Amino acid sequence: MTPLALLLLVGAVALDLCANILLKHSDGFRRPLPGALALVLVCAAFTLLGFAVREMPVAVAYAAWGGMGIVTAALLSQRIDGTRLNASAWAGIGLIVLSVAALGG
Question: pTM here?
Answer without folding.
Answer: 0.86
